[in-house]
Design brief:
mainly alpha, 15 helices, about 350 residues
C-alpha cells in the first residue's frame, strides 16, 4: 500500500510539473495543474503519515493537514526533505546504540557445603534438602538438624521429600512426619479412652464436670494441633476438624467461659467459610478475655470476607505496630501502603469486654 501511494503520487506530481512547464498559460491548464498537484500531495501525505512515529499518528487529521500543506505549498523540495527525514530516522538510532552490557558465563554455585561440619542454619538446611544433587550424607544431616522444628514450618518441605529419589532421605522424612503425628494421636487415644470409659482410672468413680471439661478441651486442642501443624490432609483433616469442634462444644457446654476454646471454634469455622459462626465465636472469645491482639487478624479476615473495607483498614492500622509473620506483614503493607502515624482506633471493637 505504501509503495502504491508513493508511486501514484510521484506519477501525478510528474504530470503536474509537465503541464506547468508547457508553453500554454491558460487558466484551464493551471486548474489541471493544481488538481493533479493536490491529489499528489494528498497521496504523499497519506504515505508519509504511515511512516510517522506512533505518537504522531494518534491525531491523524492534524498530521494529514500538516503533511498535505507541506507538500502542496513546497512542491518538489518537500518530497526531497521527507525522503531525507525517513532515511535519517532509520539510520541515526542505530548509530547511537552502544553495547551497554556484555555477556559472561554464569558462575557455578552449589547449595551444599563441601567442608565437614554438623551445624546448620535454617536456610542452609532448606537449600541442601531441596538440592537433589547434594551428597546424600549432607542432606541427611540437614534433615536431622531440622527434625525438631515445628512441622507447620517445615511440613511442605518434608512432604516434598516423600518423593525424593534418595531412599534414605525419603524414609527419614516419612519417619519424622509419622512420629509427630503418632505422638499427638497417642495422646488423643488416651484422653478419649478416659472420657469414654465413664470412670476415673485412679479413683474408680465417674469423672466429674471439671474433669470432663479438661478432657474434652484437651482432645479438641490435640485435634486442632493435627490441623495446625499440617499433619493431616484431605478426609483426615475434615475428620479432625469435626472432632475438634465437637469436643470443644462439649467442653463449652460445661464451662462456656473459656476464650481459648471459642478461639479454636472461630478458626475452624473460618476455615469452613462460616462467617457468621466465626464472628460469634470470636466475640465470645473476646468477651471471655482472650488476648485482643491475637483476635485482630481474624476480625480483619472477617471484615474482608464481608467486604467491610473501612473496618478492615482500621483493624490493620491497630496491627501496624504489633509485628506478625511474613504473611501478615505483606497483608498490612498491601492495605496500609506507606502510611505513617499512630494506629487508628477501630470504633467497631473494644478491648474491654464490657463494651
Amino acid at each position: 500500500m505504501l509503495y502504491k501511494l508513493t508511486l501514484s503520487s510521484l506519477t501525478l506530481e510528474t504530470a503536474a510539473l509537465w503541464l506547468l512547464f508547457s508553453e500554454s498559460r491558460s487558466v484551464a491548464l493551471m486548474l489541471q495543474y493544481f488538481l493533479l498537484h493536490g491529489i499528489a500531495s494528498a497521496l504523499m501525505a497519506v504515505a508519509v503519515g504511515m511512516l510517522a512515529p506512533r505518537k504522531y499518528r494518534r491525531q491523524k487529521t492534524l498530521l494529514f493537514a500538516l503533511l498535505f500543506s507541506f507538500h502542496f505549498f513546497i512542491p518538489v523540495l518537500s518530497m526531497v526533505a521527507e525522503a531525507l527525514a525517513v532515511v535519517l530516522y532509520r539510520i541515526l538510532p542505530t548509530l547511537k546504540k552502544k553495547a551497554t552490557f556484555g555477556t559472561m558465563q554464569p558462575p557455578e554455585f552449589n547449595t551444599y557445603r563441601n567442608h565437614e561440619g554438623t551445624g546448620f542454619r535454617s536456610g542452609q538446611a532448606r537449600s541442601q534438602l531441596a538440592n537433589t544433587d547434594a551428597p546424600v550424607e549432607q542432606r541427611l544431616k540437614a534433615l536431622i538438624a531440622v527434625q525438631d522444628t515445628p512441622v507447620r514450618a517445615i511440613g511442605p518441605l518434608l512432604r516434598n521429600l516423600l518423593a525424593d529419589p534418595a531412599d534414605d532421605v525419603r524414609l527419614l522424612a516419612y519417619g519424622i512426619l509419622d512420629s509427630k503425628e503418632k505422638h499427638i494421636t497417642r495422646q488423643i487415644v488416651e484422653k478419649r479412652q478416659l472420657l469414654e470409659a465413664g470412670s476415673n482410672a485412679s479413683h474408680g468413680e465417674p469423672p466429674g464436670p471439671a474433669e470432663r471439661f479438661h478432657l474434652c478441651k484437651r482432645i479438641a486442642e490435640l485435634y486442632w494441633e493435627l490441623i495446625y501443624q499440617n499433619l493431616v490432609q484431605g478426609d483426615m483433616q475434615l475428620f479432625s476438624a469435626e472432632q475438634a469442634q465437637q469436643h470443644a462444644l462439649q467442653a463449652l457446654d460445661i464451662n462456656a467461659d473459656d476464650g481459648g476454646l471459642w478461639f479454636i471454634i472461630a478458626r475452624l469455622k473460618l476455615a469452613r467459610g462460616d462467617v457468621a459462626g466465626a464472628r460469634h465465636a470470636l466475640e465470645q472469645s473476646r468477651l471471655n478475655h482472650f488476648a485482643y491482639e491475637r483476635l485482630l487478624p481474624y476480625y480483619a479476615e472477617l471484615a474482608f470476607l464481608e467486604r467491610r473495607f473501612d473496618t478492615l483498614h482500621g483493624l490493620l492500622a491497630e496491627l501496624e505496630d504489633s509485628g506478625g509473620g511474613p504473611a501478615l506483614e505483606n497483608v498490612k503493607r498491601y492495605w496500609l501502603g506507606g502510611r505513617a502515624g499512630a494506629p487508628a482506633s477501630n470504633p467497631s471493637l473494644s478491648r474491654s469486654p464490657a463494651s
